[in-house]
């Protein structure tokens, strides 16, 4: 079950991230994030009323601080990630951001007492080396002996850190609240915070003078919410250290789509870096 749900998460997030990269070149990051989360939340509401005939809010009270923390971390992750996608290579930024599975697995070992095998320790090294190869301008380093990060790397690393902690907290909640409620409820708080952010920054929910991509944002919301559902379902019945790394390999799907539709050019060292990250994410789940 854990491996199957991890693969479903990988596919759903891979498509969602690719579509988000396209949307972020048309709209501001926070507007894209608000609408894709809103559409995903509407999908969750339909399921909520269809499946949950009774709901005791008091059972959720002890976990409200954790749900709020997840929402805040998700905002930080998405906005950083989308900013990176808007100015950097989709294949590079998505690979770095996808490495959140590494951090989630480590947190699972530290706090949930999950045990890493030898192959998973080797995978950590693969991912770390892969991130370095993807992030560094090798030509600049060789010619001028100057370490310079490529555009979008910092945002990708910030997203990786925020997602790693947020999804660890989400995985731990599924043990107590089941697979659906955590992914549904944190999105409620996320939408509140995003609405306040848009209002206080005096941005418009629906910008004028452009053709608003409703259909694209709807698809992103559906795929993203679906990924959170499969992730939560998987971690509720299996180790987070298995589901998270497989799901975070969504970069493979995003890279293929970016290569086909956006015609991105990838340097040799980045190929090795992406391969290292993907190999590590697969190895850590075995």
Brief account:
Residues 1-135, 156-285 form the EamA domain. This is EamA domain-containing protein. By secondary structure, the protein is an all-alpha fold.
Report on the architecture of this protein.
The protein is mostly helical and 286 residues long. It has one domain (2-52, 63-283). It has helices at residues 2-23, 29-51, 64-87, 90-97, 100-112, 118-135, 138-144, 153-177, 181-200, 214-237, 240-247, 251-261, 268-283. The longest helix is centred in the middle third of the chain and has 25 residues, at 153-177. It is globular. The chain starts with a helix and ends with a helix.
Count structural domains.
1
Average pLDDT, all residues: 81
- Over the alpha carbons, how many angstroms does the gyration radius reach? 18 Å
Helix content: over 70%
Feature tags:
single chain; 286 residues; mainly alpha; 13 helices; 77% helix; globular
Give the topology.
Elements: H1 2-23, H2 29-51, H3 64-87, H4 90-97, H5 100-112, H6 118-135, H7 138-144, H8 153-177, H9 181-200, H10 214-237, H11 240-247, H12 251-261, H13 268-283
Helix pairs in contact: 1-10, 1-11, 1-12, 2-9, 2-10, 3-4, 3-8, 3-9, 4-8, 4-12, 4-13, 5-8, 5-11, 6-13, 8-10, 10-11
